[in-house]
Amino acid sequence: MIRRAYDWILGWADSPWGPAALFILALAEASFFPIPPDVLLIALCLGCTRKSFRYSAICLAGTLVGAVIAYALGFWAWNAIDHWFIPGVFSQEAFDSVADIYEQWNFWAVFTAGFTPIPYKIFTLAAGVFHINFGMFMLASVIGRGLRFFLVGWLIWKFGTPIKSFIDKYFNLIVIAFTVLLVGGFLLIKYAF
């Protein structure tokens, strides 16, 4: 199933709508979609290495719009659903404890989630739920996601096709490693807070 989704996303790379699809995929991933936009970003960059930085910028713009949407959802929708989570899922004390930790480490939490495979969408929603400073949230997002996407663009611009061969050859291992990191990210969130 993951391979089919991967192939479907890669299919957009050969379409004239590829950059628009990249923007939408990045937007969706920052708020709810599970597949990272890096897959399409890599394919588009390989198709035209001279546009690698342009595609990185499109990906960054999409993810920032998605982050703002997720922040707004967390900020305004939490009060409508919090009674389902407190005390059903976690206690008010646990929620307040996480809010305090998040407030203390807000920049680093969002930056780390933006740069690594830790689920970024959880942090974008949580930033809104905990009402962290929006400017700080956006700064951390721009830096974390910008470093990630422009690093991918630079690698493709610098090394080109060998990177694609590596990804195609080791796709299953990459997916397993990404999944381990993703699940590890969720577990880290669950047990650290």
From TrEMBL:
Keywords: Membrane, Transmembrane, Transmembrane helix. Residues 51-152 form the VTT domain. InterPro entries: DedA_domain, VTT_dom. The chain crosses the membrane at residues 20-46, 58-78, 107-130, 137-157, 169-189. Coiled coil: none annotated. It comes from the Bacteria. It holds the Pfam family VTT_dom. This is Cytochrome B561. It comes from Alistipes inops.
